[in-house]
Design goal:
The chain is an all-alpha fold and 431 residues long. The chain folds into 2 domains: 190 residues, Hypothetical protein af1432 (Orthogonal Bundle), CATH 1.10.3210.10; 186 residues, Hypothetical protein af1432 (Orthogonal Bundle), CATH 1.10.3210.10. Helix content is 64%, strand content 0%. It is built from 21 helices and no strands. The radius of gyration is 24 Å and the shape is elongated. This is HD-GYP domain-containing protein. Pfam families: HD_5 (PF13487).
Length: 431
């Protein structure tokens, strides 16, 4: 749906940082340091537009985003050798399909490839971006292991022309000379200090916001599809109830954000094949608090409340605050019911999708018990088939993109692992 973005240039980077911090803050901090080094090189080069510099630096901040999915976080130092393709390829296809960085995303796929092994068909601008990110990445990891920058320069001189293009190394040396980048590398970095003139359009901000929703897949594929369907069911129900466009706008974003905190829940709990123990359920319920911390006061209050109240019940038996009916708006009630319907209709590792009749029976029973809003349940009962048709039609494009991403990842992984094996075998035979 067409709607005004709810984030802006001043707060979107903080939202991204807080979201990914719940997976592992080490990669967020590493990404910011890499972005600061890349920004220094671009500032010296003075070749690209302000928009291109901005995009390349955001790309540098997110260059290891694929490692969140491929569980390579604890092997960062090994990325230089055999463990380069999984996170690089996943990061590329994720950013290419689900972010505003499509024009530069290919650089992420090659950010661990030595200059002499980069494909001849690679565009010059992608080669440069890949090399800048690669150099900044290696410098940061090297300094985490060997704090003496004098030895760093000796290492870089030894790999000039093989690992890194000489022109890229010269940019790095000049940037460090002008800006003392290495001396400032360990300072706490806010992205607006790295890139003070960042200016994102309204559409770009919305695209980055959606990117974070899809990043929940780093924990659970089912959570992504559930979020998408919950959002669409909520908006369809709201329209059939005659709510205003402003209310539907708030419902759309509140539902879109409602499970963002699940990115911080262990996958063994999210994907547990059965009923959770009391201890595991207590951890699962913290996703609402995590969502609140991620949003950090950056999202309009009405939208935030919708996102945070989807597990509240009219009789006060819900969580996290145990609110009662008079404290819950119609927007919050709609998303709460839609969340249940989406969960019942969805498939999981431990259950098949529930039928229409069983789904309606469950929510009607909860309405009779005074837990969820009867008027919302009645609208869904009367319009169930129409709502599901609308949901399927509106969800199909993004779900097709999402599943296509996974297929592309498997294809590229097979291709580059095979090509890499052939290169290694050729090297052994020639030696």
């Amino acid at each position: 749906m067409e709607a005004k973005a709810v984030v802006n240039s001043n707060n979107i980077s903080g939202l991204i940082e807080r979201t990914l911090n719940y997976v592992d803050p080490r990669l967020v901090d590493h990404g910011k340091r890499v972005a600061s080094l890349v920004y220094g090189m671009l500032a010296v080069q003075k070749k690209y537009s302000a928009k291109d510099i901005q995009d390349i630096c955001i790309l540098a901040m997110l260059h290891d985003i694929g490692a969140y999915k491929t569980e390579e976080i604890n092997r960062m130092a090994q990325f230089e050798s055999e463990d380069i393709w999984e996170h690089s390829i996943y990061g590329y296809v994720f950013l290419d399909n689900l972010s505003p960085l499509k024009n530069w995303a290919r650089a992420v796929m090659f950010h661990h490839v030595a200059a002499v092994h980069l494909p001849d068909t690679l565009e010059d601008r992608i080669r440069e971006a890949a090399q800048m990110i690669s150099l900044a990445d290696r410098v940061d990891i090297y300094l985490q292991e060997h704090p003496d920058s004098h030895n760093l320069f000796g290492y870089l001189d030894r790999v000039r022309g093989s690992k890194f293009d000489g022109s890229i190394l010269d940019l790095f040396y000049e940037a460090d000379n002008q800006f003392s980048m290495l001396a400032c590398l360990d300072e706490e970095k806010d992205f607006h200090k790295i890139l003070p003139d960042v200016r994102l359009s309204e559409q770009e901000c919305e695209d980055y916001l959606r990117m974070m929703i899809y990043a929940i897949d780093f924990r659970s594929q089912h959570t992504v599809t559930h979020t998408i369907t919950t959002t669409r069911i909520s908006c369809c129900a709201a329209r059939h109830m005659g709510l205003s466009e402003e209310q539907i706008h708030n419902i759309f974003y509140g539902a879109l954000l409602h499970d963002l905190g699940k990115i911080g829940i262990p996958v063994e709990i999210l994907e547990y094949p059965g009923r959770l123990s009391n201890q595991a359920m207590a951890i699962m319920r913290t996703h609402v608090d995590r969502t609140e911390e991620i949003l950090g006061g950056t999202i309009e209050e009405g939208i935030t409340r919708i996102a945070l109240r989807h597990h509240e019940k009219l009789d006060g038996s819900g969580y996290p605050r145990g609110l009662c009916g008079e404290e819950l708006t119609i927007e919050e009630r709609i998303v709460a019911v839609s969340d249940i319907v989406s969960a019942l209709l969805g498939t999981r590792s431990y259950k098949e999708a529930f039928s229409k009749n069983r789904t309606l029976s469950i929510i009607e029973e909860q309405a009779r018990e005074g837990k969820i809003d009867k008027s919302v349940v009645e609208v869904l009962r009367e319009n169930f088939d129409v709502v599901l048709e609308e949901v399927e039609e509106s969800c199909r494009p993004i779900l097709d993109t999402y599943y296509g991403l996974r297929k592309e990842y498997q294809y590229l992984l097979g291709k580059y692992l095979y090509d890499g094996a052939k290169t290694a075998d050729k090297g052994r035979k020639e030696s």
